[in-house]
Amino acid sequence: MKKSLLAGLAGLSLALAATGALAEGKPSVETTPIADLAANPDTKAVLDKDLPGVTTHPAFDQFKGMTLKALQPMSGGVISDAQLAAVQADLDKLAK
After folding, report:
1. Which of 24, 27, 70, 72 lies 20 to 30 Å from 83, alpha-carbon distance?
2. What distance in Å separates the CA atoms of residue 1 and residue 96, rounded to the nearest whole number?
């Protein structure tokens, strides 16, 4: 019983750590998974504004676990450094 409780708490702390960036108000193009950004209405609005179509892309399920920075090289130039900078600037505004 004690062992399963500890395992459950460890799993919970890992889940909380994974969402910690958004909970702390510090979402990032380099560390926050796209799925986490899309799950929050405020950060999803940033994605929709700065990267229109990313959350509705047919391959969204395939890349949603990645960060925007990790997805960039696979985008074939569709996601530019300037776009990532714009997303990060808008995310930073939300954190304030």
Report:
1. 24
2. 43
